[in-house]
Design a protein that fits this description.
By secondary structure, the chain is of the alpha/beta class. It has one domain: SPOUT methyltransferase, trefoil knot domain (Alpha/beta knot), CATH 3.40.1280.10. The protein has helices at about 5-15, 30-45, 65-70, 85-90, 135-140, 155-175, 185-195; strands spanning about 20-25, 45-50, 75-80, 95-100, 105-110, 120-125, 140-145. It has a 7-stranded parallel β-sheet with strand order 3-2-1-6-4-7-5, with helices on both faces. The radius of gyration is 16 Å and the shape is globular. The protein starts with a helix and ends with a helix.
């Protein structure tokens, strides 16, 4: 039995879900993945693609409940055993993929326009120790970086993901967030799915 309060809460969550896929490549520690998943839920990204080509696969639904504050229950996952398969699907579905890297030649997240209504975004984050593999960077359409001013020129995985998702959301809200929310039919299906969880 769904209470009116729970229905309202979940309906509001669905209304705030935005288009886009978050891709995690070969994350070693489930807790690090769950920290990113928590940000996905908070910023309204519903779909997460997880690649396990070099690292041991884990089930994000069953692991890391505490690290994600149960956010792992409210987002959707697709698991891939190869990065080639994952990027091929993204291209087939019409997504522009952005690989997050530490590279002076990459575009700054503050200079990229994430608020193109017709562009389907997939943002890719790599292993917490080595970052995205060279193969993933080559398969991606764009390289993306967060400019840094400190002695340490890197951020941990979950912080990088949260900053990137925040900037995407900030730009989209400034441009008119209604252009980036899920289509009506998708929202209806998602509502039914979340109500059953």
């Amino acid at each position: 039995m769904v209470t009116p309060e729970r229905l309202t809460k979940i309906s509001n969550v669905v209304a705030g879900r935005q288009k886009g896929i978050i891709v995690l490549e070969d994350i070693h520690d489930p807790h690090n993945a769950q920290a990113v998943i928590r940000s996905c839920d908070c910023f309204g990204f519903q779909t997460i693609y997880m690649i396990f080509e070099n690292e041991k696969q884990f089930n994000p639904v069953k692991m890391g409940k505490l690290a994600s504050s149960s956010a792992n229950k409210w987002v959707d996952y697709k698991i891939f055993e190869s990065r080639a398969e994952c990027f091929a699907e993204l291209k087939e579905l019409g997504y522009s993929s952005y690989a997050t890297v530490i590279d002076e030649q990459a575009q700054s997240i503050y200079e990229v326009n994430f608020a193109k209504p017709n562009e389907k975004l997939a943002i890719c984050f790599g292993n917490e120790h080595a970052g995205l593999t060279e193969q993933a960077q080559e398969l991606a359409d764009h390289l993306l970086t967060i400019p840094m001013s400190g002695m340490i020129q890197s951020l941990n995985l979950s912080v990088t993901a949260a900053i990137t998702m925040f900037e995407i959301t900030r730009q989209r809200k400034a441009a008119g967030f209604e252009n980036f929310i899920l289509e009506h039919r998708t929202k209806e299906k998602l509502l039914d799915s979340l109500l059953s969880r």
